[in-house]
Amino acid sequence: TSLATQPTRTLDSTDRPSSSTMAAASLTSRCLGKLAFRGLPSLAAAAQHRPITAFVPPSKSVRAPFVLRTMSATQAHEGNNVEHAMEMLAKADAVCFDVDSTVIDEEGIDVLADTLGKGPEVAAWTAKAMGGNVKFEDALAARLEIITPSRKQISDCLEQHPLRLSPGVDTLVTKLQQRGTDVYLVSGGFRLMIEPVAEELGVNVKNIYANTILFDDDGEYAGFDSDEPTSADQGKPKALGQIKEAGGYETMIMVGDGATDAQAKPPADAFIGYGGVVRRDAVAAKADWFVTDFETMIDIASKEKSK
After folding, report:
1. What one-character DSSP code corresponds to residue 304?
2. Residue 97 three-state SS
3. Does residue 299 have an active-site annotation?
């Protein structure tokens, strides 16, 4: 049904959006306008259009306040410092992505556990780790002890269930690379499972910072490499510090869905939280910018890198 044919009604005080909601809807226009003056001229057009709002009735079976929809070049944004994050993305010379529930639309270790019949047990530990309720190294060790995957079991899992990319992430990575921004995959997951993802995205496997599973001579599980920076809590800031120093990067962004990703600022200059797969309120509360899709990031990355 088009907006023109939808019924209208007078809104009472319980139906009306709060002033903070209305303010959020205009934040994107202000941020994009400022970015346009800083070397992103094509964003000026988006900034010039006022958001068009429409009130869409809820389902007839549920009595609820009307929902405010914002229809503009971009959607309203959430975060502690959205403008700063947009500016940092516009000039970033390195962007680091978490993999599970960010680059891919699932948790790799949970997929592996499902194929081995240990899904619920492992998923519970994953939720604790991503929510920041336990130390990451404790959750990693516990999950691996539950599944003890062999090399063949991992290979069979990836063949039966290739990990799926989140919508738009391949375009975002391509746009970043085309403008000269280096892309890294920094994950608490497993290098063996991430390498096919990197290949699909066109990211050099040397740009993967992840955990290494150890196998014995027969290919059976023999533990994990605890020297990998991502194998422990506070590992992602350590990994990003190594990346920043080795690459001589001036501006670095971290993008991810979990508590360990939020820890990466600093050394990251901005943290962009991603909630397109699962929303974690603790992560949203720490993000400079919290997104549920990559569309506006793609728009920014499509422009020439600002100075």
Report:
1. P
2. strand
3. no
Q: Beta 270-274 vs 52-56: how paired, if at all?
A: unpaired
Q: Which helix (H) or strand (E) holds 175?
A: helix 169-178
pTM (whole model) above 0.70: yes
Q: Of the residues 12, 93, 100, 156, which is catalytic? A: 100
Q: How many CB atoms lie within 10 A of CB 284?
A: 19
Tokens of 37: 């003056």
Here the tokens at position 108 are: 């790799």
What would you report as the CA-atom Rg of the chain, rounded to the nearest whole angstrom?
A: 21
Question: What's the confidence (pLDDT) of residue 177?
Answer: 95
Question: Is 60 exposed, middle or buried (CB count within 10 Å of its CB: 0-12, 13-18, 19+)?
Answer: exposed
Given 98, 114, 261, 269, which residue is catalytic?
A: 98
Q: DSSP for 107-155?
A: -HHHHHHHHTT-HHHHHHHHHHHHTTSS-HHHHHHHHHHHH---HHHHH
pLDDT digits (tens, 9 = 90+) for 256-270: 998 889 999 999 999
**Catalytic residue list contains 281:** no
278 to 45, 102, 122, 151, 256: CA distances (angstroms): 32, 9, 17, 29, 11
pLDDT tens string 33-60? 555 444 444 444 444 433 333 333 333 3
